[in-house]
Amino acid sequence: MSYEAIIGLEVHVQLNTRSKTFCSCSTMFGAKPNSHTCPVCLGLPGALPVLNKEVVKKGITAGLALGCEISGHSVFARKNYFYPDLPKAYQISQYAEPLNGRGSVIIRDDQGEDKKIEMTRAHLEEDAGKLVHDEDPNGSSGVDYNRCGVPLLEIVTEPDLRTPREAYRFLTAIKEIMQYTGVSECNMEKGELRVDVNVSMRRIGEKSFGVKQEIKNMNSFANVKRALELEIKRQTKILKSGGTLVQETRLFDPQKNATVSMRTKEEAHDYRYFPDPDLVPVITKTDVIEDIRKKLPELPEARRDRFVSQYGLTDYDSEILCSSFRIANYFEEACGDFSKPKKIANWIITEVMRVLKEDRIGIEQLKVTPPTLRGLFDLIENGTISGKIAKEVFEMMVSTGKNAEQVVEEKGLKQVTDESAIEKIIDEVVAENEKVVADYTGGKKNAFGFLVGQVMKKTRGKANPKMVNEMLKIKIEKH
Prior knowledge:
The protein is of the alpha+beta class. The protein folds into three domains: 3-288, no CATH class; 297-411, no CATH class; 419-478, Arc Repressor Mutant, subunit A (Orthogonal Bundle), CATH 1.10.10.410.
């Protein structure tokens, strides 16, 4: 008997405003615990929230990019529950009347076909604080309230996802869209994007859903994918053996490589939502929404298509470059009016991205700027250096921050194009490798590559490869 997974996601994206949702406290990451707090975000008696206008603007921007229906009338509600890091004993969120209604994102399914993933809503809410536990099991725990009130956009999907890979692709698409629109950096190490997963199993062909299991607070797409794989196997094994599942909340433990039970949820939690009496409804006029729509940047999918049509890139190249809007910007700035953008694309995908990975830096921290990378290609195209030497030059540019011309001049790396100098070295190679020359003239074509290599070795890679090939053939024919 075969089963299929029914997956829904709740994605919490931190909006990158300078101050919190309902007060002027800073949202800066990494500050001393409880240093970015005030009576409002601490929920002290008599303190009243005041909505940050920028939070609404960024929420609308994100909603439009996600294809959501933007509501002209939205309401903040109190979501009531007690937890140590929630000082008010309620969270200000949206429920019945969210800012952003239904929307959708297109991803590729496991067969490579386009698949629409529907979203129920993308609503605004404030974040809670953070519990800090000692490593010692017998130690104490503390609460850091710096995150209380930090603005979040919660994106809630319909149960449209069927595999862990689809969930991974959807999350990647969301992250790209949020970064392209500039509403969030989505730095998962800083908690700027977190994911709750809902997954159940049902027999293939059935319409009703199975018993839902929720996996909370994951801050890694790889962990989401792995947790789903493990949970699908666990649930399937139980169902196939005739067992039953109980609705519960689970956590993913990377060390144990397993999902573990956190608490049982025998019925839906009653959060007793009701409109927050301290906050008036948010009225968003149509002209304001349209003004924000006009200012939307080019989104990832459109940019991928343009890179293929404008620059002649492959779908693969375009996918890699556009996965980061900063790398895509770097590519376009490096290209300018260069006639061979595919070469620059290849270099960024191989050499530039290798350095970023090895040095664990972002493209904005790379010492080789787009104009200096373009300068390196100008030297290749005008014959000043060879492609092989270019890699050596690039490494020096990465370490020193100097431009290609400076490096080539200082290191004496200009390509040798003097015919007499190249001919002299060819004569030496031919004289030293009579047997290889005979092998080549006898039909072993691979021998020619060896001879070319010997010439390039003697010139430390600085001889013009095209000239070497042409002159060597002539020399052997006359030999």
